[in-house]
TrEMBL record:
The gene is Arhgap15_1. It comes from Chionis minor (Black-faced sheathbill). InterPro entries: Rho-GAP (IPR050729), Rho_GTPase_activation_prot (IPR008936), RhoGAP_dom (IPR000198). SUPFAM superfamilies: GTPase activation domain, GAP. GO terms for molecular function: GTPase activator activity. The keyword Hydrolase does not apply. The keyword DNA repair does not apply. It comes from the Eukaryota. This is RHG15 protein. Residues 1-137 form the Rho-GAP domain. Keywords: GTPase activation. GO terms for cellular component: cytoplasm. GO terms for biological process: signal transduction.
Length: 139
């Protein structure tokens, strides 16, 4: 039927197609998974000099997310943690996942003057979420 898709269809056998569709879904949301209002606080948390403080601050920010955003982010990051476990096969290190998903999950409402700096911090925020998943998303 119209509008139904089957992941068994050959076009979905390439992991890059699936990943691209997932990234596109998140990029096309009216507001990113990390809402615009939390973009600056997330970036400021990543910039903190003390790694322990970074994790604590990001954990507080994550707790303040709307429930659907929290649940979706937790689910997606749990999956990406499983992807990282297969780094020997897929070459998806924490840093690579940060590069791929940082700008998709966490972006400013208006493009900043220094795009490169902003993107690096977006990537670092995703890396931090992955590196400390169990502390940021307690069971």
């Amino acid at each position: 039927p119209e509008g139904r898709l089957s992941l068994a269809h050959p076009e979905w056998s390439d992991v890059h197609v699936v990943t691209g569709a997932l990234k596109l879904f998140f990029r096309e949301l009216p507001e990113p998974l990390v809402p615009y209002g939390l973009f600056e606080p997330f970036i400021e948390a990543v910039k903190l000099p003390d790694p322990q403080e970074q994790v604590e601050r990001v954990a507080e920010l994550v707790k303040s997310l709307p429930a659907p955003n929290y649940a979706t982010l937790r689910y997606l990051l749990a999956h990406l943690c499983r992807v990282m476990e297969r780094v020997d096969v897929n070459r998806m290190t924490r840093q690579n996942i940060g590069i791929v998903f940082g700008p998709t999950l966490l972006r400013p409402e208006r493009e900043p003057g220094s795009l490169a700096t902003s993107m690096t911090q977006q990537n670092q925020a995703v890396e931090l979420l992955l590196a400390h998943f169990d502390r940021i998303f307690p069971a």
